[in-house]
Design a protein that fits this description.
By secondary structure, the chain is an alpha/beta fold. Helix 1 links the parallel strand 1 and strand 2. The protein has 8 helices and 7 strands, in the order βαβαβαβαβαβαααβ. It has a 7-stranded parallel sheet, with helices on both faces. It has 2 domains: 216 residues, 3-Layer(aba) Sandwich (Rossmann fold), CATH 3.40.50.720; 37 residues. The structure holds nicotinamide-adenine-dinucleotide (NAD). The site of nicotinamide-adenine-dinucleotide has 26 residues, from helix 1 and helix 4.
Length: 260
């Protein structure tokens, strides 16, 4: 059912996005890959995906802080592979610091990349999805779209914003065969959280592994990080026909973090 559809995953050069790209490619879905990587490395990634999964792929390293760059890369990607059927707004960054001293430039970057880019991408792909009467928009939010944590003002503001944006677009598209959902993961094993683990290891004089365990179990009852591929499988399920009634939801995958 999904073979030959076209998916765009922002931030698919690393972590959750890259794992999700592999899960979708295994189903024969053509992919617009994207992330901060050189053109040369991006071309190698396209080649690898086309050879391994026998699909068509395209790559862009557009900076998501620039709305014009987002429009350009989405238009070029769609011209190369066909209009976008599945949009996964996944790219994101983190900076942890108390609100009193949180740097304005970090606030602006986090809001632009983790929230505004999703709005711009959604706007760009809605006309074709509406015309086809089929579309899947999946926003990678976070448990921090549902609850707060100290030192994460910008991240929590952006992720709560994504959850709200998801609800509104789902309402607006409910009669058009387009579903819009947020996935809200707890800890996932990717480079994004490396700095937080290193900070604990340095502050408390413990090993990286001990610091990682402390970080996970401070808030998440299930004492292990998710594998990025598990998020990819969740995305695939939301793309399936079985999930066509799920829309406007913020779906936790958080090891019981928000059950407390
Ligand atoms: P990651 O650091 O492995 O990947 C981030 C991706 O975003 C990369 O491809 C990077 O190139 C891209 N990116 C960053 N800045 C960009 C910019 N200015 N322009 C274009 N692309 C840019 O991170 P990840 O952990 O895979 O995170 C993916 C998403 O999952 C993020 O939205 C993150 O908030 C969310 N998330 C992660 C976790 C976790 O524990 N890792 C938990 C919950 C939610």
């Amino acid at each position: 059912m999904l073979a030959n559809k076209v998916a765009l995953i922002t931030g698919s050069t690393s972590g959750i996005g890259l794992a999700a790209a592999r899960v979708l490619a295994e189903q024969g879905i053509n992919l617009i890959l994207h992330g901060l990587m050189s053109e040369e490395d991006g071309a190698a990634l396209v080649k690898e995906f086309e050879a391994e999964y026998k699909i068509n792929a395209y790559f862009s390293n557009a900076d998501l802080r620039d709305p014009d760059a987002i429009s350009d890369f989405m238009a070029t990607g769609a011209a190369a592979l066909g209009s976008i059927d599945i949009l996964v707004n996944n790219a994101g960054i983190q900076h942890t610091e108390g609100a009193a001293t949180f740097p304005t430039n970090k606030w602006n970057d986090i809001i632009a990349i983790n929230l505004s880019s999703a709005f711009h991408a959604i706007q760009q792909c809605l006309p074709a999805m509406t015309e086809k009467k089929w579309g899947r928009i999946i926003n990678i939010a976070s448990v921090h779209g549902l609850v707060g944590s100290k030192n994460k003002s910008a991240y929590c503001a952006a992720k709560h914003g994504i959850v709200g944006l998801t609800k509104v677009v789902a309402l607006e598209c409910a009669e058009d065969g387009i579903t819009v959902n947020s996935i809200c993961p707890g800890w996932v094993d990717t480079p994004l959280i490396g700095q937080q683990i290193t900070d604990i290891a340095e502050k408390e004089g413990v090993s990286f592994d001990e610091a990682q365990y402390k970080l996970i179990t401070a808030k998440q009852p299930l004492p292990a990080m998710a594998d990025p591929r598990q998020i990819g499988e969740f995305i695939l399920f939301l793309c399936s026909d079985a999930a066509k009634g799920i829309t406007g939801s913020a779906l936790p995958m958080d090891g019981a973090w928000t059950a407390q």
